[in-house]
Every structure is written in structure tokens, then in C-alpha cells.
Amino acid sequence: MNVLLPVLRRVGIALLTVVLASLFVFLAVQALPGDVAQQLLGQNATPAAVKQLRETLGLDQNVWLRYGQWLVGAAHGDFGTSLVSGEPVAPTLFTAFRNSMLIAVPAMLVGVTLSLTLGVVAGVRRGRPTDRVISIVSLVVMSVPEFMVATVLVLLFAIGIPLFPAVVLRGSDATVGELLPTIWLPIIVLTMAMAAYILRTARSSTIDVMASEFVTTAELKGLTMRRVVWKHAVPSALLPTLNVVALNVAWLLGGVVVVENVFNYPGMGKLMLESVFNRDLPVIEAIALLSAVVYVVCNLAADLVALALDPRLRTRQRRTRVRPPARRRRTPGTPTAPGGAVAPGGAVAPERKVSA
Hints:
The protein has 356 residues and is mainly α. The chain is built from 15 helices and no strands. The longest helix is centred in the N-terminal third of the chain and has 36 residues, at 89-124.
């Protein structure tokens, strides 16, 4: 029960965050300058035609009523109709999200595993050649922009050594089988981009944990270094790293704009840029809401994993303090014992004899 309450509280906060994010997204899109109906019809449209289109799109209704209708529809998977293509937003959005998952999930699995392992190794071997090599490589990768890494990989493995396609030639209608040959270069770029940040955080956290007292105690008990590191140090070192991992995973799943546009990959990032360029407001709202949901879910998962790894959170119980018995107050005229104790019923407590 003590663990269930923090879980329910975190889930409630996550739901409230999603609702507030949806409100901010909707109001921010509605506050954009210009009339959507006027832009769709052009400058030569008559006022009657503009009015008719506003009524068709529901723009003449109250903003709070439109927000309520949009939120209920979004909860059921209905994000409205695209202003450009006239088709429902949901199929296009979920197709782009599926394509982004094709490159995000492998990058996430490889990047998180590799970065945590190298970060722990560098932290345990602090100051040694292994730590120096890992730290220098991670700093170099962090310093180079993603589009530069993507361009170099295209020059090396698509033009110099033609192992992979340079860009995706098919559009959003490409199937999974058609996208599989083109996902490897984006996966490499995303893995390098996210692994460097997680590695630096894991290294710093491991160094702090290895200097703690409970690790020293485990070493003094005669435990092997491997057991001390992986059983005692690593679970504690992972806790500060979870938030960084969650943010990077959400960054991947939410669509990586730069990488997808370099490789012309039909994912969430490319769809977002096209929607902004065409001022397709329903698609922009849907992408922003889905990205917010992804970030909230990833942070919620990080909190729940931290709750499972931290023994203090698992075994936290309410401790009831045992109050000492209240001393009986002496009323005026009440006889007392020689030691000052009040006997029950007002009688003087007999004096105890101490044997020699």
C-alpha cells in the first residue's frame, strides 16, 4: 500500500501534465497570427466564402468549446482533418510515428546499453587510460552536430563505399520493407548523439557512488570488485541517470527533425516541418500533443523505475513514535513519598528498602 500511493500520485501528475500540455498546444496554435480560412482560400476570396469556410471548420465557435471537442476527439484517436490534404490526421500521424519508431527503438536499445556500460567502466577506472579514451571520444561526439555526423556518414558509407542508400526516395507511403535498407545510417547517427550524454552522466554518477561509505564497507567485507560494482554500486548509480535516459528516449520517439530531414526520412520530424511550412494546424496540434504524451510517459517510466530500484522508496513505512506515559500531576494537598512519587489514590508510596 505504501508503494501504491506514490505510483498513483505520479500517474495522476502525469495525466494532469498531459491535459495542461494539450491546453497550451491548442491555445498556442489558435493564437498564431492570420486567418486560416483566408489563407486557405487566398487573398481574392470573397467575405461570404471566408465566412462559409470558417463555419465549416468550426472557427466561429467559442475557443473553449472547440478545445473541449478537440481534446475529446484526440482522446479517441481523432485529431481532425488536414487542411491541406483534406484527409484525417490520425492515419498520417501514426504512419509517421511508426516510421520514427523504426529508427528510434534500435538506437534506443543500442545507445542506452552501450552508454551505461561504458559510463560505469569509465567511472570505475577513473583516471586510467580506459577512462581517458572513453571521455575524449564522448566529448568529441557531443561537440559535433548531428547533421555533420550524418553528412560524414553519407560521404563514407553511401558515396565512398556504397553500402547504404544516402536518402529515402519514397515518401510517407513507403512500406516497412522499403524503409529497412535506409534506416541504418540514421540509427548510427542517433545512437552516437544520445549515447554521449548518457555516458557522461553515468560516469559522474558512478564516481560519486564508488566514493560512498557503503561501497567501502562492501570492499572491507572482502567482496570481489565485480560484485561490489554490479550488485551494489550500479543500482545506485543508475538513479541519477534515469532522467537523462528518459529525456533522450523521448527525444528519439518524438521525432528527430534534423536527422530525418538530412536523410529525407518520412518520420515525425519531417512531417512536422512540412506541416509548419503549409500551416496545417490540425497536424501541428496532433504532433505537438503526441510529443508531449511521449515525454510524459518516458518521465513517468523513469520515476517508476527509480521507485523500484531505490530501497528507501520500496521499504518506506510510517513510523509511529511511542510516546512515553504521561506523568501524573501532583495536586495540592496530595501526600507524596519521600522520593517525590505520588502513590495511587493519594496514598504515599512505601519507601523501597535497598539491601546492602
